[in-house]
């Protein structure tokens, strides 16, 4: 018997034949199919996960936190591992996963090792990253805020003072974190958002020293107040001032409140509130450093909002200095309210005469002559008045000074009692009546003066004359002496 075998190539689907010869002469052929190839084994070419960053980069002990991993090669069935133990993992995308730390992970300060496993898909474990677990920071304490209140509809930056602040401190407004600026361990700042001040009420302000919102400080209240009314500015006095002359400006109008602030070219100035229609402004040296126009307005809010209409204040160039040469008259009597003429140079229509530094009513005659009226207060006492001229309404640009003497008026004698004295009389009381008799003394002839008795007044002078003045009959000349030229009268001493 003869057997022929024909083989198919390995892995092919070709049949092969078995041919044999039996006892007979005819041959038979049997066709046998090759077995089907085995299915391929499952591929192990699964992408390797790689962690590139962890957010947050640190966590605090005792604070369970959701951690976000960023990287590549993440799969829907990727599993985050903490120190080799799987954690419930949320697949976000092929580049992002998140998982929640368990209480045991953050039970104490230390270091966690975080990896991602793709082994469920036949892959391997990623690189590892370190997640520090820090000790809890201290609790902060809030002391104050500036401003202590804000206005509805006005987003503001608030400064917070206290203690225990750290760079990671976060301001919470009604429990919600706000963008926070760390300045130092005692100061933070934060910006209110429009939603915070959309309505009047009270905001609760706290500080968390844990990024996740833990370790919350004490609370402070921040009122959100209704908007104040707008002020209306109607007048400024004076309407102009001289360069280099800081001044107090009076503002009139309506709607002023205790918190009203005067704005000079948009910047706040020291303001005194007098009434709902009256404010006073103190200009600074920088306001009047150069000529020009200042824009004056009023804000009824401490933060500079709710600004009124504006009025202009003119800054004029300085006028020349005046020179005072002479006064006419050069002296006046006590109580005099007459007009005094001032001669000099450099006078201008705005020139003001100053008496002892105080302005008096002044008349401009020419650039070489002024007139002014004395007041009873100016001449109420004997002495000398300092007279000068200012060419600036603010009493600046002062001239030289001349003296105006205030002299005592002459005594005026109306009667002497007795009108006569008997020769050889004893000591005699002589009464002089008249005007301006105060502080006078009596001289008989050329003798030494006699001083007044204690009962004397400005209209009555009483003197005691000794008997030696009446030794013989004669006509005695009595003179009242003052600091000014005297007034004299006489009495007769007839023969006894």
Defining traits:
elongated; disordered N terminus; 496 residues; 5-stranded mixed beta sheet; mainly beta
Describe what this molecule looks like in 3D.
The structure is a single chain. The chain has 496 residues and is mostly beta strands. It contains no helices and 46 strands. The protein starts with a strand and ends with a strand. 24% of the residues are buried.
Q: Can you lay out the helices and strands and say which pair or pack?
A:
Blueprint: E1 3-5, E2 16-21, E3 27-32, E4 50-55, E5 59-60, E6 66-72, E7 79-82, E8 85-87, E9 89-93, E10 96-100, E11 110-117, E12 129-134, E13 141-146, E14 150-151, E15 157-163, E16 170-173, E17 176-178, E18 180-184, E19 187-191, E20 201-208, E21 220-225, E22 232-237, E23 240-242, E24 248-254, E25 261-264, E26 267-269, E27 271-275, E28 278-282, E29 292-299, E30 311-316, E31 323-328, E32 331-333, E33 339-345, E34 352-355, E35 358-359, E36 362-366, E37 369-373, E38 383-390, E39 402-407, E40 412-417, E41 428-435, E42 441-444, E43 450-451, E44 460-465, E45 474-481, E46 487-493
Parallel strand pairs: 5-12, 14-21, 23-30, 32-39
Antiparallel strand pairs: 1-2, 2-3, 4-6, 6-10, 7-8, 7-11, 9-10, 11-12, 13-15, 15-19, 16-17, 16-20, 18-19, 20-21, 22-24, 24-28, 25-26, 25-29, 27-28, 29-30, 31-33, 33-37, 34-35, 34-38, 36-37, 38-39, 40-41, 41-44, 42-43, 42-45, 45-46
